[in-house]
Sequence to fold (576 residues):
Amino acid sequence: MTAKKATSKGKKQGKKKTAVNEPMHQPEWLPESLLETQDETAASDLPPSFHDPFIRKPGVLAIVALALGLLFDFLFWDQVVGVNFAIFITIVIFGGILWLTWEGKRPRASSLWLLLPFLFFDVFSFIRNEPLTRSLSFVGILFSTGVLASTYIGGRWMEYGLSDYLSKYFLLIANVLSGGISLAADTRKYQLESDSAKPQIPVWALLRGLLIALPIVACFASLLAAGDVVFNQKLQDFFDFEDLGEFIWRSFTVLFWAYIIVGVFRHAALHSRDNELIREGKSAVKPFLGFTETAVILACVSGLFLIFVVIQFQYFFGGQTNIGVEGYTYSQYARRGFNELVTVAFLSLVLILGLSSVTRRETDQQKRTYSWLSAFLVALVLVILISAYQRISLAIDWHGYSRLRLYPRIFLIWLALLLVAVIVLEIIRKERYFAFAAVVASVGFAVTLTLFNVDAAIVKYNIPRVLNGKWINVGHLASLSTDAVPVLVDEFLSKKYALSDHEKIGAALTCYLHFMPEEVDEDWQSFNLSQRRAEDALQRIEPALQEYGINDEKWPVRARTPGGSLYDCRYYGYEE
Fold:
């Protein structure tokens, strides 16, 4: 009876142990050696090269990088930035993914989500021409590329904190700078640790030999050329020394970008596992501030904001009748108030995040109290942002759209969404995703600005305002990017405007036509869709602009209308 109980107990313990330690159900009657073999097989679904601390085929990586360097030379030499940038970076990204997969380094599925913002900004980098929109496209491309290279295998980029982003980018820069040197070390490691009996091609030895041989051969060639006129002539015809400087510079550019690409690819292969993140399970700064002190700080700031909000309600309902207090003009009120209120909102966000990191919250009650105090503060900040939004709206109603009014108007919306996201994450105790929320808000702002088409929106909004008694700022319209030209042409062809307003629109288009190059001899590498659409639109109405003229004998350049009016082709002041 005792033996049966022991046997039964042993079986139960064995079943319990199997359930805990075995990831898959295994029959208990299998031999232990077979069980170990099956465990190893189940755990080794990745190729052996996945775990290598070095590149298995460094020669192939060098060839791939050199090919991409030559592609850079082909796309960018003697060209301006256009579709060539989008083509180059796309080939680099997908070429890198193919090479890494061939090397045995598979991407995590969550890492591939980064391709969505990358492709969006990649396409719009040659569709838009407005300065900030295009700059944000390039920043978005480089940011998503850098994060992809840093989280390619691990895929935990959504959990990154601010310190993780900084450390990952510093590590990426360090590996890019040392990429070529480290690749040579990979070659030696692989040759030493590889069990393959196949002979390896000594790529790096060949390259070193070529570098050493070049000056020696050049020395002997110069001596032979000096001793024989015919040989000297043949040598000059072959090398064409007039283009030698260009050849040297282009070769250096190819090698430079190949070196950079080697560093990025090698970093993605060996340093993107995300095994451990900073602040994982603990705070980067040990909490040192007591809960009482923090509660007092939040209560005092909230009290101040509450008083301000109560006073602000008269402006929400009073509107223009309350402007002009203390000698402020309509525009000064809107502009001055906006800057300070946005600063207050941003500093409030910093305050909430900072206190969240340094405050000791030892009980659940303290955690809940802190969360609700922060939520109340954020609610007041949102009201302040509404006040700021109304102020910038007042300026738009009076003066119309401009870049300096549209940028902050869109920014305010995403700042408000970020504040809401931060407080929600605080309440549900997911503070680790603060940085991810900030990244989403930043990308959202850039995407919104890109889709909004800022310069085209300025033309669409400002010109029809003349029907309500407003005026057209010709210099402002003529200072926009080529994104505005197609819409400006549509307004010029419209019959709903008075002759004087029609001539102002024609003056702005005359300025664009004057500064547009007469013959565009750029190759396809420099193609920009905004530029092309502007050229086509101007060619369509060029006969209608024959009566307009340009006075460019002295600065500033001015457009002359058929009625004899002169308008500056550039706007240099701050629009009130």
Remarks:
- The chain is about 65% helix and 0% strand.
- Residues 364-399 form the longest helix (36 residues).
